[in-house]
């Protein structure tokens, strides 16, 4: 089928997939393939290698999962112990779990064994599933290498390998582990390589992995989703907590993902929201896999309104009907902005992204605008020029931030001779710095 004809595909039934897969797609309510599915699946059914450039939310999981399942259903055989027929490498635990869930959903009418090997979980259950052999293994690089080093899994009979979110692998420092894994694969294999952007290092890895690949590019590199309405609020750093509450008080912020740069920042924002009676949970690298999965499940079921995440989770969150993404802090890497806001407006829906930008983040904003080749709409919510950020309204009568080095000696009623709200004088005559108001930490 020529590429020009592939663009005209309007039904999954036109792609040549097995009946059991078409039945599963119908059960999931899928009838029309996305552009990357329509352009990739026919080539992959032919056994071709593929280099796919596509943003998250374009349907690329089904683009590689359906041909793999079709291969398995047309050539059924029991995997040998400690072997895998198809290997999918993902950068994060959340993304790995969601990919495995998609394989199970599309393969619901066929006998298929799907395993997930990620860090943050005990080795015992993983060893058991590997021992039986698997049709499909979805794994993060570090834990997979652990099992390979211990001889618990071998890849010499693997037929298909998929590297998903390759540019995120680069961000997390996984390029060398990926090369170690690929070196153990047989030369006679089908290789699929997906990335949202194509930096030089990733292009080199793709060249080494792929043999005469078909190139499918759906979204121009480093552009934002067209259905995401974007807005920048220029704010004082100290005003971010109150402005965040103001945003979440709006009824249209029904299901919101909030991004911070650090794990500590994510915890602080979550505590702030819960103190304001807004149901929230944090998801970041210091959380156990069980905690992260529970938070994600609660968010997906609507039991919490806000999910606060760091960038390690940015591409592993695939939840329908996310109404808003809030960048509480702009990312240090401009490309990450594209992936963050891609958590909304998925599967053809519309969404919105609001970014809080303080004076120290203006350079990050300029980098994002250069990368995305657009000028983002800006609303100035800063104080008047003569006002200092430290004088912004406080969050309430809470104690000073925990990271403040010098703590007041008395937390209760002021000692005689001191002004209300000030600390008691110390022995050396020094007084606590500040105006006497409760101070607000810049998150």
Summarize the helices and strands and which ones pair or pack:
Layout: H1 3-6, H2 19-28, H3 35-45, E1 50-53, H4 60-74, E2 84-89, H5 93-106, E3 114-117, H6 123-132, E4 134-139, H7 141-149, E5 160-163, H8 166-171, H9 175-183, E6 190-195, H10 200-209, E7 214-217, E8 228-234, H11 240-248, E9 256-259, H12 263-275, E10 280-283, H13 289-301, E11 306-309, E12 324-327, H14 334-341, E13 351-357, H15 362-372, E14 378-380
Helix pairs in contact: 3-4, 4-5, 7-9, 14-15
Kindly describe this structure.
- The protein has 443 residues and is α/β, with parallel strands linked by helices.
- The chain folds into two domains: 3-217, 3-Layer(aba) Sandwich (Rossmann fold), CATH 3.40.50.300; 228-391, 3-Layer(aba) Sandwich (Rossmann fold).
- Helices cover 34% and strands 15% of the residues.
- The chain is built from 15 helices and 14 strands.
- The strands form two sheets. A seven-stranded parallel sheet has the order 3-4-2-5-6-1-7, with helices on both faces.
- Helix 4 crosses helix 5, helix 7 packs across helix 9 and helix 14 crosses helix 15.
- The model is unreliable at 1-5 and 384-443 (pLDDT under 50).
Measured distance between first and last alpha carbons: 54 Å
- Return the string of H and E elements: HHHEHEHEHEHEHHEHEEHEHEHEEHEHE
Instruction: Please tell me the overall pLDDT.
Output: 84
The helix content, as a percent range, equals 25-40%
Q: Give the low-confidence spans.
A: 1-5, 384-443
Number of distinct beta strands: 14
Number of helices: 15
Number of discrete domains: 2
Shape: globular
Please report which band the strand proportion falls in: under 5%, 5-15%, 15-25%, 25-35%, 35-45% or over 45%.
15-25%
Fourth-level CATH superfamily of the largest domain: P-loop containing nucleotide triphosphate hydrolases
Taking all Cα atoms into account, the compactness measure Rg is 25 Å
The largest sheet, given as strand count, sense and whether it forms a barrel, is: 7 strands, parallel
- Mind telling me which CATH architecture of the largest domain this is? 3-Layer(aba) Sandwich
